[in-house]
Every structure is written in C-alpha cells, then in structure tokens.
C-alpha cells in the first residue's frame, strides 16, 4: 500500500505562556467588559452572535453538503466520507455517493485511511512509553531483538527514528513494494535481515513505510498481543470507534473500502494492487469514528466523554518535529494553511483510495476526508483543502468544470487510435518493404526496424524511470499502471503494435531472401547444359 505524500510547510510551534497574575486577570476582565459594553459590534457592524452564525454557515452541514455534492458532480468522484469537528463537538459527519460494491457511503461506512494509520501507530507507541516499557530514544533492538538488518548501523536505530522517519531506511536501499510482500508484521520485520540502510540513523529523513511497520511490531512484542488487538483494546474501544480496525494486506480490505480508477470519464471499481500495510497504512475507519479521533486530537489526548487515551505531554511529543525535517513529527505532518495558520495532519494514499486528516490547533477545527479513488486524482486532498478554507472564512476553490484527467484520457485515446492506424498501414506495406530491403545488407534493414523499439524501452523500464523522477521511490509496474492508466494502456498498445509489425516485416524479409529473384540464374538448368554443335 504505497504512501508518498506529506504536508509540507513552516513549523508551527506551541507557545507556552506563564500563568497570569491576579492583576492581569482583572485588567483583562475590565477591558473585555468595556469592549462588549461600548463597542457592541465590530467595526464592520457584526455582533459576536452574527460572527458565530456566519462561521456556522461557512463550515456547517449545509455548506459542506453543498460543496461535496458539487465536487462529486464535477469530477465523477464515486464515494466520499467527511467528518468536521470543532473542539469536542461534531460539526458534521456524512457519507456521499456509493462504494465499489454499489452500497451507499454513510457516516458509518468503513473506508481505508491509508497512511493516516501512522498517527495511530505513534499513539500506541506513546502509550507504551507512558507505561515505562518503551523509551523513545533507546535502540529498537532493546525491546525488539528480532529487528536485525545486514547493516550493523541498524543496531543504533531508536524508536523515535522509526516514528519520525529518520532511521536511515529508504526505498533505494530496501525496495519494500517491489519485493515479495509479507503477510504479517513478524514477516515484515524478518525480511529486513538482508537489507541495508541508505544513511546512518538520524542523519537523513526518508518517508519509508517499513519504519511504521517495525514500530507496530514493537507494540505487538512489548504488549504481548496482535497490533489489531492492541488498537481495539487501547484506542478504538476506549474512544468508541466501533467501525475501526487494522488489516495486514490488500486481501483483507472489506468491500466497502475498495476503490476506483477513472478512465475516459467513467469510474472503474478495481482491486488494490498487492501490498502490505499494517502499522503504516492498514487502519480501516468511518467518518463518525474519525470524528471521535479528531476530537481526541483537539483535546490533547482526551476523547469524547472525557476518556483519556494518552497524556497531553505525549501529544506534544508526537507533534514535535524531527531534528532534520521540521515538517514531520512522530507520525504527524506539520505545516500551515494558505492564511498561515498552523496545521497538524497527515495524508494517506492507496492506489484506489485516499484520505486526509487536518487539525487546526488555533481554531480547534478537525477535518477528515476519505474518498474511494486513488492517489492519482487527489480527491481527498482537494475536498479537505476546500473545507479548511471554509473553516478559515474563505471561499473554497470551485471544482474544475472539465476534469484534467478526462482531457488526458481523451488525448491518450486519440494517440491509441493513431497508433493502431499507423500500425495497420505498416502491416499492409510489409511485403513491399521486405522487397525493397531484401537485397540490401542486413544492417540496413535492422536500422530501419530499430525505431520501432522506442515504445518498448519505456514500457520495460517504466519503474526505473519513475524511481528517478520520484527521487528513488520504489514502485511496481502494476502500481505505475494504476497511477497513469490511460498512458500505460497506450504505451502497452504501442509496444505490442510495434512488436507485431517488426515480427511480420522480419518474416517477409526472411522469405524474400530465400526466394530467388528473377534473372538470378538459380534453378535455370538450361544454362548449366553444354551447347550441342549444330548439324
């Protein structure tokens, strides 16, 4: 279950103020009284009550429904679930559209949240830290002896470095997606025995799913229960997240969490490519459950009904950035909104589903979006960005009137038709082509056929090309196909058409060379007989 993105931006830092003196409190009360008595309204003539009403209209149920429905109509997004909270209150939870199996998406529909799972893994580890059975800055191997790599530097990897992605593990040293996929967290750790590090621990930030998988296995070993069992007992259960769990592989996805690709304006329900995601991207949840999760984040560890699952100090620790990347903390991304407000969040991407969670600490808003379309389309990001804008009193950006993906698909469809027409014309001319080059040196014919290998080269090396463009990220051929379906369809079609054309022309060329040309003398027996003297 590939995960690529994070929120980037300046580091939001918590301001810690000393307790005010009695005089300061008195002055504050007097000033507040004066303002409310004599001002009454703001400079714009807007009362506090009117501001509250306007704010509710901007990010209330009606406005959210209106935007999401308009977005779905414009983009063809098949299904999406949304949760909006403020402080300890739920502003709105709802589902829209349908699942891949055709059922309505509701506020209680379990959907994939992908890499949002890393914030749950981080919280589970912090719970163990609070109990004193794990320490953030001790080597992982102290509590997890089975964590062994071929690189001796791995012995220095700390628990903190797993959570903030600075362990030194990276795709270019350990291609986690293209290798055979594990079936459990135990296997995910065991397959690291032959792996090496891309950098020394603590010297480089690299987003790598295996970090969170090792952390989840640490939770299993220290707690003595499965990771799913631990989350159910210590996180999901206490917070009342009844539709939430965590899974190992794509085979465990419930029908409601399966997703779609777009192609030529149609949405296609497809299976998620093979992948392992427990600990890094395996949590399945619903909008209503994620609302409870965001209330817990706003409450700094205290969930609905006053249930505390982790201390405020641990929450602050989880939001403290890495020493070498100020936009990533312990399972959380850090950044700012367009208006400069601090953001704590995380994105999640599968090839067939996406999710986004965003907490605005200043205003107390929490926003979660889960869509059943893949990472190529960015639907969860787009909807979440719009809801953040609404929460900040801004007009959300209108969805595009024409989907750019439809334009790309149409262009690729035209390219495919043109490719087939040209291939057909080339096949029709193959016999004549062979006659032209049959009597020439072989290398001349080979040079004429060489350009037809052009589509095949990128088709066979597309994963390497993607790795270069994505700065070393590992990916499989099938995953590239899910990211760029119309392009890959054209590329495979062009490769196949060129291969057939080359084979047919070579066949005609061989037959032409075997067949004697007229006047060559081959097979003319009269020429070999001695002439008889005339009588």
Describe the structure.
- This protein has 535 residues and is of the alpha+beta class.
- The chain folds into 3 domains: 58-120 and 226-391, Beta-lactamase; 131-213, no CATH class; 404-514, no CATH class.
- It has 18 helices and 11 strands.
- The chain has a 6-stranded antiparallel sheet, with helices on both faces. The chain has a 3-stranded antiparallel sheet with strand order 3-7-4. Strands 5-6 form a two-stranded antiparallel sheet.
- Strand 9 and strand 10 (354-360) form a beta hairpin.
- Helix 4 (117-131) packs parallel to helix 8 (209-223).
- The longest helix has 30 residues, at 485-514.
- It is globular.
- 42% of the residues are buried.
The CATH superfamily label of the largest domain reads: DD-peptidase/beta-lactamase superfamily
Which stretches are low in confidence, meaning pLDDT under 50 for 5 or more residues running? 1-56, 520-535
Element pattern in H and E: HHHEEEHHHHHHEEEEHHEEEEHHHHHHH
Annotated CATH topology of the largest domain: Beta-lactamase
Largest sheet: 6 strands, antiparallel
By CATH reckoning, the class of the largest domain would read: Alpha Beta
Number of domains: 3
Number of helices: 18
From the alpha carbons, calculate the radius of gyration and give it in angstroms: 31 Å
Structural class: alpha+beta
> Averaged pLDDT, please?
87
Architecture of the largest domain in CATH? Answer: 3-Layer(aba) Sandwich
Strand order of the largest sheet: 2-1-11-10-9-8
Distance between the termini: 96 Å
The fraction of residues assigned to DSSP E strands is 5-15%
